Structures are given as C-alpha cells and as structure tokens.
Amino acid sequence: MWSLKKEKGVPVYVSIIELILSYIKNGDLLPGERLPSERKLANYFQVNRSTVVHALDELVSLGWIIRKQGSGTIVNEGKWGISTTPRTDWRRYLEQNAFAKVDPFTEQIEWLIKQSNEHVLDLYTGELPMDLIPSFSFPPLTWKHFLEEEQQDDLGYLPLRQSISHETEKDYGFLLPPESLLITSGAQQALFLILQVLLQSGDSVAIEDPSFLYALPIFQAAGIRLYGVKLDQEGINLESLEKVIRQHRIKMVMVNPSFQNPTGKTMTMRRRKALVALCQDYQIPILEDDVFAKLNFDSADQTPPLKKLDPENVLYIGSLSKILGSTTKIGWLSAPTSVNQQLAEARKMMDFSLSIFPQLLANLALTNADFPQNVVYLKQTLEQRGKAVFEVIDQMVEWEVTMPKGGFYIWAKWKQGNLRQKDWSIFLQEGLLIAPSFFFSEKQDSIRINFSRVDEAKLPIFKEKLLKITQKIRFDSNTM
Question: Which domain of life is it from (predicted)?
C-alpha cells in the first residue's frame, strides 16, 4: 500500500501528500484510522524523516489528519465525505507556482541553518559572513534629509549612478555613463526586468553548465527555456554554444565570466573576444553577470568585462550585495539608453519603486574614504581563506579542485563519478552544509563551498568534517 511514485520535477513531500489524500478519498484510509509512524513512512518511501514530517504537517494544516498524543496520527473523522462537496482544488493551482517548488535537500539545509546548531558548518549560504562585511562611519542623517533628496529619477539616484560610473572607470578603464545605468533592487531584479521586457514566454536562452541561473525559478515562471552549454578551462565552450544557437533559436546568451558561480572559473581574454564575435555574428545579445567584479585577488590581472569589448550588445549587471551584504539589495544594469528607459518604465508600471534609503547609504559607502582600503582588506582575507580551504581539499585524492582567482566560491569534483542520494545525505548528517552540483546542473558529482565562511578557527572543523564524509562515501562505494 505504501508505495510512492516519485515524479520528476515534483517535490517528494507533495507526492506523499497526494498519495495519502488519494487513500483517504478512495476509502483505503477510514476516518479515525491510524497512519504508520513517521519513521515507518520514511522507511517505506525511502526518504528522510523530515520530508515525511513536512507532508504530514501540511495535511494537518488542511484538516485531513490530526495528531493525538499517545495515539499517533489518525485520519480526521470530521473530514469524512468532504471530497463529495464541490470545491476549488487550490493545490492544483499552486502546483503551477514555480516559486513554491523547493528541493527537499534545500529544505533540509535551511532547516539545519535555522536550528543554530554548533555542530553545523554553513558553507552553503551565498553571502559573506558578518565579520567580513566592511564597516563604514556615516555622517549623521535625519529623516528630513531623505525626504528632501530630489536627485532621483526613473533610473535611480543620480549621485549613486555617478559613483558606480566612476568605480567602473577606475577598475576597468572604460566609461559606463550615468545615463546608461539603471539602479535595481539587487541583481535579480535586473534579471527579472530583462525577462519581462526583452524576452517572452517560449523564448530560448543559453546559459553556462553549471550555472546559478539553473536554480532560479524566475525562468520557469516566465516560460523561458534554458539550454546549458558546458564549460572548459577557458570558459563557455563556443563550439557547443554555436550548436545550441542553431538548434534552438537562442534569443540571449547569459554568462558569469568572472569568478563564475558556482565553479569560480574566470573566462580567458581570448574566449571573451571569441564569444563577443560569435554573438555579433548571430546578432544575439549577451547578458553579463559581473557581481563579483571587485573581488579579484590580483588587481594587476584584472580581465576586462565583456561590456568593455562590446558596449552596445552586452547587458551588464553589477551589484554591491557581494561586498556590503545581501540586505543592501543594490544592483545595477548597464544597457543602451533606450533599453534602460523601457525597463525603468516597466518597473514603474509594476509598482516596483526603489527606495531612496538604500541608494543613499550605498552611495555613502562607495564615496567613503575607507572604501578602497576596506575592499583591499576584504580581498586579502578572502584569498587567505580560499587558499586554506583549497589546500585542505587538494590533499584529498578523491576530490579534484582548482583555486579560483577571485570571488568566494570553490568547486570540488568527486573523481569517482556521480554521488548518490545516500552520499549527499552524509553531508547533512555530518553537519557540513554545501551546495550540491544538482542545484546548478543535471550533474551530481561536485560541491560548491563558500570559503569566505571558513575562518582560522573553523578550518580544522571543516577539514575534519570533509575528511570523515569523504571516507564514508569512499567506503560505501567500495562495499557496493
């Protein structure tokens, strides 16, 4: 009876809910009848107990089952016969909600993070730890100061756009005019506006494989088809990209060429020029995500962005969130003026107004005398932590790893092929939270580690946990 059919793309807990509901509605489970224990259900379904608990909690909230102390979980007698009453099947509507489809592995990670357990080492969260976020002394500001600030138009706060333009010219030696910059509430809002204005449902987009874009639900919600293109040592493979362009009528190519999320790779200058030339030939725009731009470890080896190579055909996304923390929510998009005006108009129609408060604070940070020094210190600390984590992994023959040139992600590949579901669960059991490769691709052989969160005190803990996990996975593989 307790046999679960797992469907691709459907969260396991949803399948469990539907199975139990079908038994109740069909009379296989009678009112007042007791369900098997959570542990037994987890064993029947071959899932983690937390997944079963999630499903049962949902059924309790809907009123189909109740929990009685000492009696276990039973079918609610007051619900008997409800299936004969006409009602809207809201669950069927909600199943179409791309934003609600959370991977069970993600749910378990987020649950462990919320427990604030000292046993858990969180290298999954994609942001800097608090000890690395630069601190600035701001002049005293009054509420009236914000109310009187009048230098904001549809593109955003002008002084902030001027500061971003200045920083880009200082870093890369090319100008992004303030009128070409649209301030957004983080990089993802910039991406959302592009999907809404420049693309339409059914369009095809090429992305790197693996890529953080693979995990974002906004593409599915917008009806955009994603096609992954493999990476090699120089960046996105252009031979594969050209095949995808021809086969699927690609409308846009989206890349993260510097300190790529999740692999940490940096696209070579030769590959950047060739990518720009290829997309020019096919008249396809490039979306360049450059949110890690300032976190390069060697300032003398600063590879210019694609935007500098092709200002007219590259849409350029930047962000301060990777330096000032995710709560800052300040990003920007550089595009041709006509494009930015359309995007700004669309945002206004959607009522996605941008508060002056974070923009003014972001500008104060960028223009602060300590900003350059703080960024230098941040980069030095990140490089030290990155090298320490790299050396730990590199000493383990089971993993293949490369030291990135910037950012705060390191990518480690399991040399013996794909990891199984039971292997991934070992990471959770040992309290080492990482982002698995199946978040970013169909592959299941690698892990992404946020090394910024491994300070000197946590390094031995990280080493101990990864070594124990590696030994367990290797032992399980050898005993198969």
Answer: Bacteria
